[in-house]
Amino acid sequence: MSTDTSQRLDALEAAFAALSKDSLFDIGAMLLEVVDDNGTSRAQLSGTGLLLFDEDGKPALIAGANNGAAHMTLSNDEPRLVIESSVNDCPRIQLMGARGIPRLDAAVDPRGSPSLGVLDASGRGQAALLVNPRGDGRIFINEGGK
Amino acid sequence: MSNELERLERLEHLAEALKDGFLGTDVIKAKSFVLTRPDGRVGAEFSCEEGQVTLQQRDEQGTTRLALGVSSSGMPQILLTDTEGNVRLSVQLGPKNTPAIQLMDRQGQMRLNIMVAADDTPAITLFDSGGAPRAMFMVDEQGKPVISSRDA
Question: What ipTM does the predicted assembly reach?
Answer without folding.
Answer: 0.72
